[in-house]
Every structure is written in structure tokens, then in C-alpha cells.
Amino acid sequence: MTAEHDRPRPFYGALAGLLAGAVAVGVGQLVASLGAQDSSPVIAVGEAAIGLAPPAVKDFAISTFGADDKVALLTGIYTLLALYAAGIGVLGARRRGYALGGLAAFAAIGLAAAGTRPGSTAGYLTPTLIAAAASTVTLILLLRTIPARRRALAAETAPEQLPPGSGGGPEPPPPGRPADLPHEVVPPQDTRRTFLTVSAAAAATAVVGTLGGRVLAERGAVTRERSALRLPRPSVRSADQLPPGSDLRIPGLGPFVTPDSLFYRVDTAIVLPQVDPASWTLRIHGMVEREIEINFDDLLHRPLTETYVTLTCVSDPVEGPYIGNARWLGASLADLIREARPRAGADQILSTSTDGYTCGTPVETVLDGRNALLAVAMNGQPLPVEHGFPARMVVPGLYGYVSATKWVTDIKLTTFRAETAYWAQRGWSQQATIKTESRIDVPTGSKTLRPGRTPIAGVAWAQHRGIDAVHVQVDQGPWQEATLAAVPGIDTWRQWVWYWDATPGTHLIQARATDRTGYTQTAVATPTPPNGATGYPQVQVQVSR
Ligand SMILES: Nc1nc2c(c(=O)[nH]1)N[C@H]1C(S)=C(S)[C@@H](COP(=O)(O)O)O[C@H]1N2
Ligand SMILES: [Mo]
């Protein structure tokens, strides 16, 4: 036998590391579920990673993974964690110090992430500390009992050849030199059995911790509060009736009102904030003459407006999906701000959500008469939790990151000079009006078309300016004016269609929108950072003979 056989096999080291990592995740999740969800080390690291990602990375994540960006992030974190844990195990099997050092580094990252979560208290450190302790115990127990190749061999072939007097369980090898021990010191079968027992216990802890954590976390969910909520009827203006013809009902064209299930979701929350309306309050303070605090009941008793507004994410690329139109019910945000009597010079409404996300909106825009809302309902139902239950801001005409704060509980009047909100700190523009843009929904270009009359249809938007015209171009031909659908106002997108007499061959179709100020969307292609993508939407189509 060669010296190779004397060393612990890397497989067992890796397994020990993975199990210790799984214990850390399970225990961390379980302990976190008893308090703040985002104090779990994995969640805290994930949310910190979102916060640290430069705009280009955020943009890449959103354009690559879309609404699954959080699943992708967590998958990435778990993959890195697994590799790291396996590595610690393999190294730790050689030298215990490596394992302990690796664990300490892991704990330090978890503590740093959890300790810097918005609103974090000393309690935020508990899940990571307990997880690290459980993980350390697991790893040490497993590393001690890793069956080396010769031991395993001995256990299989000649268990009765154990030296006498060694039946009292595994002796801990001296720290740092487990591999150099003479194997006969540890009874192979006991060792192996211990390794298997500890492994099974570790796996069980990981599973129970993760599932238990999920169950406990769901107890804190506000699903029941949401279904119990009775919405008042709109008192100011009802948008119940859409003008006839607002939906062209062309197959493949997105519906005028986006169903909640298809509505895009963009936010920094890995675990959705669960905000009980019974304890929700909104405070308006800062550069105001009169500080205001209202609770949810106060909010529901205010005059409520219902209106259609199309939300758009600044990260929506040309032809992208991060835009959706809904019917919102809410109180006038402008009235609330005015009641607080902003002081001269206050130009920014800095809104904050329960999870510490911040957003800066120009005071001037909110007060200019548009339907800026503190919304409580979306499409006739209380806001879905992922869309901000129980209250969010909706301001027609501004990208979501500068206007649409979900789970909003704090509004501070300040200046753009004095304070910079979350995404603006990360390189996006402090102020960003939604650009005049359009999208081609049909044809998609994926199917070969038949020659003859074919609808080319899509949506165009220039919220709070309104869409005046959409033109379509085939190859380098003339720009043709599309037919526009009806709209309830100027704050939504607008469907359009142009019927093309398709001719055999390959063609490039482009579109461009013109808003009611007379501005036509630019052909210049720009990426989404720092304030929204531009360029004509284009579809390449094949038409058969
Ligand atoms: N609390 C909170 N509100 C938020 C965000 C967020 O990350 N946290 N993201 C904003 C962004 S970037 C957009 S585009 C809109 C998206 O709203 P939706 O998820 O309801 O579609 O929410 C805005 N409100
Ligand atoms: Mo966004």
C-alpha cells in the first residue's frame, strides 16, 4: 500500500464540509424564523449582495434572470457556499485549523451581512452565531471520525483484528495532525459508525431546520390580514369602466390591464416584508411645518381615487417585460404631503419601506396635479404582498425606483443635495422620468409567417404625457402610421396595430412612438443605466412563399 491510502479520502472531507454547511443553513434559517427573516445568514448575505452589486451587474441579473433574479442569486449563494463548505471539509480533514479558520471566515461574513441589515439589532447576530456553533460542532465531529481508506478496508475485511482495549470510542486526534495518527488507535468500525450517525443527524438537522424555519416564517405572514381587508369604494373618481376599445384583443398582444400573475416584480427583498395593516403607520417628517403620522384606518378613511397607471422599471430593456398596467386605488399623496406643509427648499420626497429600501421622488412632480397615490389596492384587490401590501406609492410618469415604494412607512421631506436614495447611491440617476418608448409584441419573429395581411401590434408609453402616434417601418420603407387603441387617460401605455401585407422573404420591422408633446422616441440605442434604455424595438421576421 502506498502513502495515498493512509490519508483521509477527500470525498469524506468534502461530505463533512457539505453537511456542516447544510447544518449552518438549516439552523440559521430556523433561528431567524423566530425573529426577523432577513437575519438568516443566507438571506442577509443575499440582500447585502444585491445592495453591493454595481448597476451593470444588477442590470445583467435582471436582463438574464428577470423575475427569477432572486432565485438565481440564492442558487449562486448556495453553490458558492457548497463549494466553500466542501473545500473547508477537504482541507480540514488534513488540518483541523483550516476547518476552524474557514468556519470563522464564514461566520464573519454572515455577521457582517446580518449586522448591517436595515433596522438590525443585536438579535440579528444570533442566527449566524448559533448556526456557526452548530456547524463547528458538526464539522469537528465528522472530521474526527472520517474513515481513512485503510480503516475502511480494515473494517470491511478484518474487524476482529482491533487492538485490545480500544473499544471505548474514538480518541480525538491531536489538533492539526489527524492524518498522521496511526490508524490502529481508532477502531475502524466505531469510527465509521460514528461518521454515519453524525452525518445522518447533520442531514436531519439541516432538513428540519430549513422546513421548520419555513413553517414558522409563514406563521408571521399576512395572508390572512390581506384576505380579511375590506376595501372602501373609491370616492373621488372611479376608473371601473375602461373606454371601449382600450384592448385590441390581438392574439399575442399583452392585455391592456396586466393580470397580477403576469405583473413584473422588481425589488431588493429576498424575503417579502410581511406588514400587518393593524400596526402599519406612515410618518411624514423632515422639512415640514407639521409632522404627520397616520395609521391604516386613517388612510382608508381618506378620499380614495381609482385610476389606471402603467408602472415601468428603469431596468426594462428595449422590448423588455418590466412594465405593467394596473388599476390602483389610493389616497392622494399630494394631499398628504401638503398637510405636512413642506418648507421652502424641500425638493425631494425620500420614502422608506419597512425593509430599509429608500426612494427619492421630486416634490414638484408629486404636487403638480397628477394622480400620485398612496395606493392600497391593485386591480380591485388589496395590494398583493409582493406589490407592497398594505400600502405603496404610485406616481404616474416616473420609473419605479424613483416613485413606487412598496411597503412604505416613512416619508421624509428633504433635498436631493442632502440625501441620496438606494439606487441613486448605486449609480442610477437621482431623478428619472419615464422615456417615450414602444414595444412590438406581435409578430414575435419566432414563427414563419404566411404572406398576406398580418397584424403588427404592440404597446407604446409616455406616462403622463400620453401617446399621440406610433409608426411602423418595414425594412427601409416609409414609416406607416399605426392605429391606436383607446386609453382612459395619459398615465397608461397604449396599444397599437398596423396591418401589413407581408411579402415572402426576411424583413426587419421597427416601431417608434411619438408623445403628445411632439417628441418622437429616439433611434439611438442606449443601455438601461443610468436612467432607462432607448432605441427602436425591432423584430426580424420570415415570411414563407
Ligand atoms: N420597498 C421597495 N419598493 C420598491 C422597490 C424595492 O426594491 N423595494 N423597487 C422599486 C422598483 S425598482 C420598481 S420598478 C417597482 C416595481 O414595482 P412592482 O414590483 O410592484 O412591479 O417597485 C419599486 N418599489
Ligand atoms: Mo425598477
Q: What does this 3D model show about the protein?
A:
33% of the residues lie in helices and 21% in strands. The chain is α+β, with helices and mostly antiparallel strands and 545 residues long. The chain folds into three domains: 3-150 and 187-219, no CATH class; 236-426, Oxidoreductase, molybdopterin-binding domain (Sulfite Oxidase, Chain A, domain 2, Alpha-Beta Complex); 437-543, Immunoglobulin-like (Sandwich), CATH 2.60.40.650. Strands 2-1-10-5-6 form a five-stranded mixed beta sheet. Strands 3, 4, 7, 8 and 9 form a five-stranded antiparallel beta sheet that branches. It is globular, with a radius of gyration of 30 Å. The N and C termini lie far apart (74 Å). Residues 1-5 and 151-185 have low confidence and may be disordered. The structure holds ligand MTE and molybdenum atom. Residues 266, 313-315, 400-401 line the site of molybdenum atom.
Topology diagram in text:
Blueprint: H1 10-33, H2 41-52, H3 55-65, H4 69-94, H5 96-115, H6 126-144, H7 149-157, H8 188-219, H9 223-228, E1 281-286, E2 292-295, H10 296-300, E3 304-312, E4 323-332, H11 333-339, E5 348-353, E6 358-362, H12 363-366, E7 373-378, E8 381-382, E9 392-394, E10 408-414, H13 422-425, E11 437-442, E12 452-461, E13 467-474, E14 480-481, E15 483-484, E16 494-502, E17 505-515, E18 538-543
Parallel strand pairs: 1-10
Antiparallel strand pairs: 1-2, 3-4, 4-7, 5-6, 5-10, 7-8, 7-9, 11-12, 12-16, 13-14, 13-17, 15-16, 17-18
The structure holds the ligand Nc1nc2c(c(=O)[nH]1)N[C@H]1C(S)=C(S)[C@@H](COP(=O)(O)O)O[C@H]1N2 and molybdenum atom.
Molybdenum atom is lined by residues 266, 313-315, 400-401.
